[in-house]
Amino acid sequence: MKLLIGENLKRMRREKDITQEQLAEMLGVSYQSVSRWENNSCYPDMELLPTIASFFETTVDKLLGMNETIEKERTDAYLSRFQAAISHGDVEACIRIAREGVAEYPNNFVLLNKLMYALFIAGDADGNIPEWKENMIKNDAEITALGERIMKYCPDQNIRLEATGRLAFNHCEMGRKEIGRAIYETLPPQDFCKEAQIWRGLNDDEKLPFIRERIYKGYSALCAGLYAVAEAELISDEELIKVYEKRLALDNLIYDGQYPNADWGTANTHYNMAKTYARMKQPEKMFEQLRIAVKSACGFDARPESYPVSCLLLGERTWKRTDFETGDSRPLREIMREKWLASSDFDGVRDSSEFKEIVKPLN
């Protein structure tokens, strides 16, 4: 097994924010020795390993990288538990699982990133966490510290960029918009991302899977953009309806007209259309959209653990129940009944027999 002491030593030294010279002085060796260790030119003497491990508050095995396989297996187990919890909106469990993993592997950036994510979701106003405002304030310093640590030391670029975006988001949410924007500015532009550049380096057997994944990511980004346009409330209700119609048309285009109706996004889109038609005083269209929204919400709650989806542009994909991430532990029927339909836009029709009949399946 290849020893990873050089990489581990360099990473842990940087995490402690000390130089090679400072570490050498503490260990009573030359800084050239530390440099050679980190470059894997040679290894520290056996008798020094316990001292080095103790200094970095780790074990000799971890310092050498000999338990890497075990850590990977344990990390995957934590991630599986985390994903199961987040799919049910159990944010407290997510935080607990992530802290448990970080306690076992303090320098595991995958788990540190999950902890940062869970702490951030705990302050999400869209969930059903009563103390979300308190959580935003309570977790702010830890989210910032985790984000800055991952940005500075994490060798995995994907994790680093994800944490960078979340750190910027947190600063904006906490009223530090200038800091957040400055961090956002450090992220690479879309034109120079991997998906835009790697095409020339692919083998023929890699191209179709790559193209399909790129289409899926582009589709997801376009859906998010349409959602942002609608949520910004900067356009008229008539234009909003067109945005929602384009979202539904996009789903049908990508999925060859077979987009599953039992989907959170479908339920939300039709609900928003119903709400908009209610404001426009068009009750027939409002009721039509509300029926579809209610049916989609019920179907979403009853969806299987996994189900295949096949279409030309995306190929064969499998949707899993645990893929859905939320900060709300309630079923969608309950969210629609207690939160979405509480909108004052429905006050004019709420007491009508047709409205009551349509929403009855949500009970």
Low-pLDDT segments:
none
Shape: elongated
Specify Rg, calculated over alpha carbons: 25 Å
- Determine the structural class based on helices, strands and strand pairing: mainly alpha
Counted by DSSP, the helix tally is: 18
> What is the string of helix and strand elements?
HHHHHHHHHHHHHHHHEEHH
Commentary on this structure:
This protein starts with a helix and ends with a helix. The radius of gyration is 25 Å and the shape is elongated. A hairpin with a 3-residue loop joins β1 (306-311) and β2 (315-320). It has a two-stranded antiparallel sheet with strand order 1-2. 64% of the residues lie in helices and 3% in strands. The longest helix is centred in the middle third of the chain and has 28 residues, at 204-231. The protein is built from 18 helices and 2 strands.
Short description:
The chain is built from 18 helices and two strands. The chain is mainly alpha-helical and 363 residues long. It has three domains: 5-64, 434 Repressor (Amino-terminal Domain) (Orthogonal Bundle); 89-187, no CATH class; 195-362, no CATH class.
Features:
single chain, 363 residues, mainly alpha, 434 Repressor (Amino-terminal Domain), two-stranded antiparallel ribbon, 18 helices, 3% strand
